[in-house]
Design brief:
The protein has about 375 residues and is of the alpha+beta class. The chain has one domain (about 1-375): Alpha-ketoglutarate-dependent dioxygenase AlkB-like (Jelly Rolls, Sandwich). The protein is built from 10 helices and 14 strands. A 9-stranded antiparallel β-sheet has the order 1-2-3-11-8-13-6-5-4, covered by helices on one side. Strands 10-9-12-7-14 form a 5-stranded antiparallel β-sheet. A hairpin with a 2-residue loop joins strand 2 and strand 3. It starts with 5 loop residues before the first helix and ends in a 14-residue tail after the last helix. The structure holds N-oxalylglycine and manganese (II) ion (MN). N-oxalylglycine binds near residues 203, 218, 239 and 272. Its cofactor is Fe(2+). It is found in: Nucleus. One of its GO terms (biological process) is regulation of translational initiation by tRNA modification.
């Protein structure tokens, strides 16, 4: 592992912003040699192995959620970021496909909420997958054609639906949290020592090749003692984990398909960002773990995981050639906790910086202005 670039270690007003810009740069492309790659054998003084609790999740329950037995997971911590746990792709071969299809076909469906609902009628956003599938299947690469709804999808909220304007969740905007995602989250949390984790809110982010997510902290949840879970699928991204102050320097790491991050303890409220999606190597647009067959596995026998039909997977895989999907799962309320009755009091407490998602194209038009997708950039 190369020594960390000076800019990464540098303390000072703009350390995070500087490193964000460095990885966001297109021309010339950034040097990724300082980015921690947990999928490789690591020789890095900042990284240590984390022992998870194999008895917290039975092998059967893990398998039901498409996960390997916990004893086989490779988990890491970072010395500078206590409570942060990185689990390098613990999914069983052939099981990521289920989650990808959920993100592209199932979770965007009503009653869940997505960015397109902000400026389209409910009937128009009713079945994004169906409305996009035929057009996408026929699309020829490189040709300029109007974007389908699936290609315009930027975020979906689940459970307690996050309100991007007030930066709050509320009791009266809740729909059932997907049971499969609830289960997998509970198991990952338990393996990391957090028993009784209850997935109550989810934010799914859809990244195209030129997307990024600005520097922010997720602090809108009312109980910060519960971890935040993050699952990534598709193209790899650089993830930056900073400190408690916005200007603190950040550690860059790759998030690859199947990787799970747990932000718990002191790391729960650290600044973080996704400056770029990493271009796939030529000739290998999809990572190998997404090409593993679902056949021959008994993943789909008891209902939690569904086998993805080939025609669905063809479309998912085509979409993922140029995209990344990330699911963040949050517990909003602690045990016995309730939402405050006066929501205005929370807003006056400060300004939570969540959901600062930037998309290149829209950003060109309106820098620092909330864009139509509901995210904004404030670098
Ligand atoms: C978020 C977030 C990170 C990612 O949605 O709050 O930080 O990897 N996502 O997409
Ligand atoms: Mn976040």
């Amino acid at each position: 592992m190369a020594k960390m670039a000076a800019s990464v270690l540098e303390h000072g007003e703009d350390a995070f912003r500087k490193i964000f810009k460095l990885y966001k740069r297109r021309n010339p492309p950034p040097d990724f040699s300082d980015v921690i790659d947990f999928s490789k054998n690591l020789k890095n003084d900042m990284v240590f192995s984390v022992e998870l609790n194999p008895s917290a999740v039975s092998e059967t329950d893990a398998c039901r959620a498409g996960l390997r037995p916990v004893r086989d997971w490779r988990a890491f911590g970072l010395k500078e970021h206590s409570g942060f746990i990185f689990i390098s792709n613990p999914f069983l071969p052939g099981s990521q496909q289920h989650w990808v299809r959920q993100c592209l076909k199932t979770y965007p469906q009503k009653p869940n909420v997505c960015n397109l609902d902000m400026h389209m009628a409910p009937t128009e956003t009713e079945d994004i997958w169906k409305k996009s599938a035929d057009i996408l299947r026929k699309k020829t690469q490189g040709k300029r054609e109007p974007k389908t709804l699936l290609e315009k999808l930027r975020w979906v909220t689940l459970g307690y639906h996050y309100d991007w304007n007030s930066k709050t969740y509320s009791a009266d905007h809740y729909t059932q949290f997907p049971p499969d995602l609830h289960s997998v989250s509970q198991e990952v949390a338990a393996a990391c020592g957090f028993h009784g984790f209850s997935a109550e809110a989810g934010i799914l982010n859809y990244y195209r090749a030129d997307s990024s997510l600005g520097i922010h902290v997720d602090e809108s949840e009312l109980d910060h003692t519960r971890p935040l879970l993050s699952f990534s699928f598709g193209q790899a991204a650089v993830f930056l984990l900073g400190g408690t102050r916005r200007e603190d320097p950040a550690t860059p790491m790759f998030m690859q398909s199947g990787d799970i991050m747990v932000m718990s303890g002191p790391s729960r409220l650290l600044y973080h960002a996704v400056p770029c999606i990493v271009p796939a190597p030529t000739g290998q647009p999809l990572p190998a773990c997404l090409q593993e067959s679902q056949q021959g596995t008994d993943l789909h026998t008891d209902g939690l995981m569904q086998e993805v039909p080939l025609e669905d997977w063809e479309l998912c895989s085509r979409y993922l050639h140029t995209s990344r999907v990330n699911m963040t799962v949050r517990q909003v309320l602690g045990d016995g906790q309730a939402f405050p009755t006066d929501t205005t009091s929370r807003e006056s407490e400060g300004s939570p910086k969540d959901g600062q998602h930037e998309q290149q194209e829209q950003d060109l038009k309106a820098k620092k202005k909330r864009n139509s997708s509901g995210y904004d950039l404030d670098l």
